[in-house]
Design brief:
2 domains; phosphoprotein; disordered N terminus; 322 residues; 30% helix; hydroxylation; seven-stranded mixed sheet
Length: 322
């Protein structure tokens, strides 16, 4: 049934009733039904800074096209959309992208929100574009059992690097060892973070994939080698702060060791996404990229899943299945 058909379903009439006049156009939009939704750390700082009470919470989802006026997105196809926390959305073409054409039947579409999606791309570009990591180098990853860190560590191993991971529970450390990390430790239980980092890699670190910030970062920077590179994609230890954290300040170490520290957003390399996603999907099919998911069932449980993810309850990617 076309979106503009005068015999449209009662549900769609009901949906259109709540859409402000002028927003919906019959020319090219589609009606989406969410299948999987993502909860990610970036939602916390973004919602605090850029959102107002009553706004729809931001976020991505895998959705099914259930009505369409756009031949690029026929009824029944699946897309990744930036529709936020909603079960049904009338969406424009600019807000959605098709799932890869050759997506395997035995791979859950939920991975398009994880390792074969934005988190995976973040890991890939942080290593390849920011760190320019090379075979034989040593990489440090914190929050290493999460959606981004777990992929970053595995990609570095594929590139012939030594990888050290830090996580917040013994179960997560065990998972990192299953993934092939050379060294892994629980930062909450080690007597000294500095000693744990030194023991894991006495010669220091060439690259550091930074997800956490705060005191961890202050200690880790001191362990970098000369000309070390640091890719900063997150700072989860800072997201709930009401008073900004202060020092210590690593400027002298950065000068003497001539370190490069660069923050980045994954959208900078959007033009590479199609090739990059295909590459990572191939790694997954070959068994070289393993991806665990923490699945919460029920759209009504989105807030609980989000808060649990921020508390570190998930191993791998946190997903909500509608």
């Amino acid at each position: 049934m076309e979106v503009c058909d005068p015999q449209m379903s009662y549900f769609f009439q009901y949906l259109l009733y709540f859409i402000p006049s002028g927003i919906y156009s019959c020319s090219s939009e589609v009606l989406l039904e969410a299948v999987f939704l993502s909860v990610d750390p970036y939602m916390r700082p973004f919602s605090r800074v850029r959102m107002q009470a009553g706004d729809v919470m931001i976020g991505t989802q895998v959705a099914k096209v259930i009505q369409s006026n756009n031949p690029s997105f026929p009824v029944g196809c699946h897309v990744v959309s930036r529709c936020g926390w909603r079960t049904h959305t009338v969406s424009a073409e600019s807000d959605i992208t098709n799932i890869l054409d050759d997506w395997p039947q035995d791979v859950s579409l939920s991975h398009a929100l994880g390792a074969i999606g934005m988190p995976g791309l973040t890991a890939l570009y942080g290593l390849e574009e920011v760190c320019a990591i090379k075979p034989g180098e040593t990489l440090l990853v914190n929050a290493a059992a999460g959606a981004v860190g777990s992929v970053a560590g595995q990609i570095a191993k594929l590139k012939g690097c030594k990888v050290v991971g830090s996580a917040g529970s013994d179960d997560k450390v065990a998972y990192l060892k299953e993934l092939g990390f050379d060294q892994a430790f629980n930062y909450k239980t080690v007597p000294s973070l500095e000693e744990a980092l030194k023991n894991a890699s006495p010669e220091g670190y060439d690259c550091y994939f930074e997800n956490v910030g705060g005191p961890f970062s202050s200690v880790a920077i001191l362990q970098m080698k000369v000309f070390g590179r640091i890719a900063v994609c997150g700072g989860i230890s800072l997201y709930n702060d009401t008073t900004p954290q202060t020092g210590p300040y690593p400027h002298l170490q950065m000068i003497f060791k001539q370190l490069k520290m660069e923050g980045f957003l994954v959208g900078r390399w959007e033009h590479k996404n199609d090739e990059s996603l295909k590459r990572m999907l191939t790694w997954m099919q070959e068994g070289n990229l393993k991806c665990k998911e923490h699945v919460t069932v029920g759209f009504e449980n989105m807030p609980a899943a989000f808060m649990g993810m921020l508390r570190g309850e998930n191993i791998g990617k946190a997903i909500v299945k509608v």
